[in-house]
Amino acid sequence: MKKIYVAMPAHASNKQWIENTIAAAKVAGVELIVKLSGMGAKADAGSEIIRTHVITDDMVKDSGIAYTIVQPNSFFQNLFGSLPTINAMGQFFLPLAQAKQSVVDIRDVAAVIVSALTQPGHENQTYLVSGPESLTFAEQAEVLTEVSGKQIEYVDVPKEAAEAAMKEAGMDDWTAEKLAEIMAWFAEGHYATVTDTVERVTGQKPRTFRAFAEEFAAVIEK
């Protein structure tokens, strides 16, 4: 059985890329498309990135090719993007308010994808993938403080400030705007749902944030 995995960065051309992928898959005789999407994908989401996930998910579902749609929450590993300020000042800055979010280790997302690609029984399924608990980012900061021995603080910032900082760091306007927008959407509290997908699909319990934090502590400068 020919299977492919499709993942792409958030980009204004996502719909065209999926259209091209589906056309090429049909020519190649692909029988299963495993597509990375996003948790909470719905047509009226307050984020263009999330709305585009819905559109491209539906394109795959309507292609006539069997599919597995993998919809994870945000990743523990996104914290690496804040490592410079964590090291420099013991703070990380995100426009995520005090919302709880069931963030997940990207390695557990990968394990679900590998299962879909290598084992039968995942055809025409949509998997919502989360970590084992829902934490605020202030709670994440508390865990990081405990395991690293360095005082670390989460600082909530306005969406506009996050967008300006990303642009100042060299990010293109479209990406900065849409990433700030999706984080502001997360901040509304839509992403606290905890699922059992990782264990159900892979047979392994998902990693906890604390387990990730203990690894992450190795790159935190005291």
TrEMBL record:
It comes from the Bacteria. SUPFAM superfamilies: NAD(P)-binding Rossmann-fold domains (SSF51735). Pfam families: NmrA. This is NmrA-like domain-containing protein. The lineage of its organism: Bacteria, Pseudomonadati, Pseudomonadota, Gammaproteobacteria, Vibrionales. Residues 22-207 form the NmrA-like domain. PANTHER family: PRESTALK A DIFFERENTIATION PROTEIN A (PTHR43162:SF1), PTHR43162.
